[in-house]
Amino acid sequence: MKFPEPIIKKIESIKNDKKRGASELAILAVETFKELILSEEVGNKKIEELVRTISSSRPSMFPISNHAKRLGKLLYNSDKPTALKIIANYIEELKKKNRRIIKNAEFLKSFSIVTCSYSSIVEKFLKKFIETLQKVIVCESRWEDISYGKKYIERIKSSKIILFPDKEIENLSGVDCGIIGADGVTLDGKIINGKPSLAMCTRLKILRKPVWVMTGLDKFGESIDTVEEGFDLIPASLIKGFITESGILNFEEFCSTAKSLYQ
Amino acid sequence: MCPPTWSRGNPVDIIGDADPERFKNVFEILMSAPEVGGIIFIVSRQGLTRLEEISENLIISMEKFKNSKPVIACFVGIIGQEDVFLNNHGIPAMEVPERSVRAMYALYRRGKFLKKIEKG
Q: What's residue A227's pLDDT?
């Protein structure tokens, strides 16, 4: 089955875009459905085909396939005006998601925290609460001569932020908790995030300090054995909880809620 | 009231195309059913689910039945103000179904305990 040219272009840009993160590309994926519905009279088969094509475009970016699958189900048997309304509501919810996650993380706003490997949602949280947070330690997260932590600090700009060398992580102390984002959360109990997340979480476990994962439910994926270089697989046993758009959830609750939405 | 594919048992699945009217009618039947002691009201977004209307109807029905049974709501994966609205009107809204079930179980145990005390 062939798609119109503008749709093919959109799918190609989802495939090849190395600058935007999974959440932004997920919105682009949803907009592709809108483009398809506007372009012609489409039935369930064409929608299913688009779901399959988009889902396979970036297999390691779980939100893209999750939203494509969920939207495909919501659009099933819809006429054109209804489908367009569903998509408009869906995009609106996607945009609200991050604001809700940050709101749900507000309970951390007066703590001393450590973070590493730099999700956009954690960055937004830090920017919003930097005045009330006691102290923020940012791990250097050095990979191939680039210090992602340093870049992060340059963007947030506050004297409360301290850059912490990765090789010293075993001596980390003086924080109330850790926060990380997630590139993925798998059913078999692993959180995918950049280095040195595993070392940081392990250290905080020894210190008996909680680690919170700030992430949308759309980061849920089936399972994974290996990750790209520069990434860690963190066992869920090192995590206190998941701060999501649906509240603060434990691992089991995260999985069951995400499964009900995206499987 | 429900399409032929409804679950015909507990949990009462009123099917994805349910409009606020169907939610309301089924809820009121359950509220008046003597064999039902409490209701967990779970909603997830399906197409154009009108969440505001569903929440408002729930409050109206609860008032109609004078809050005679415990009701716990759960709006799964929905980012809106419906949970706040329900909480403000005395209906607890939980984030995930598991918590709703635990809360209902706690109410059940509390009810049993109070009955035991009453009997002496």
A: 79
Assign A74 to helix, strand or coil.
Answer: helix
Would you mind telling me the total number of residues written for chain B in this entry?
Answer: 120
Res B48: pLDDT: 82
Question: Taking phi first (over 0 means left), then psi (-120 to 50 degrees means alpha), and beta for anything else, what does residue A107 get?
Answer: alpha
Q: Number of folded domains in chain A?
A: 2
- ipTM confidence: 0.82
- Kindly tell me if the per-residue pLDDT of B40 is higher than 80: yes
CB-based contact A74 B76, cutoff 8 Å = no
Q: Do B96 and A85 touch (CB under 8 A)?
A: no
Average pLDDT rounded to a whole number, residues B32-39 = 96
Q: How far A91 CA lies from chain B's nearest CA (Å)?
A: 12
Q: b/e string for A194-219 if b means 16 or more Cβ within 10 A?
A: bbbbbbbbbbbbeeebbbbbbbbbbb
CB-based contact, A57 to chain B, within 8 Å: no
Residue contact A256–B46, C-beta within 8 A: no
Give the count of beta carbons closer than 10 Å to the beta carbon of residue A2: 7
Task: Please say which residue of A42, A74, A98 terminates a domain.
Answer: A98
| Cβ neighbour number for residue B20 with a 10 Å cutoff | 17
Q: Which among B44, B48, B79 has the least Cβ separation from residue A100?
A: B79
Evaluated on CA atoms A115, A119, A122, A124, the torsion sign reads positive
Residue B5 falls inside a structural domain: no
Question: Does the pLDDT of residue A60 top 80, yes or no?
Answer: no
**What is the predicted pLDDT for the residue at A234?**
96
Residue B46 near chain A (CB below 8 Å): yes
**B11 CB near a chain A CB, below 8 Å?**
no
Q: Looking at the structure, do residues A72 and A111 belong to the same domain, yes or no?
A: no
Contact check, Cβ <8 Å, A249/B95: yes
pLDDT of A222 > 90? The answer is no
Contact: A96, B79; criterion CB under 8 Å = yes
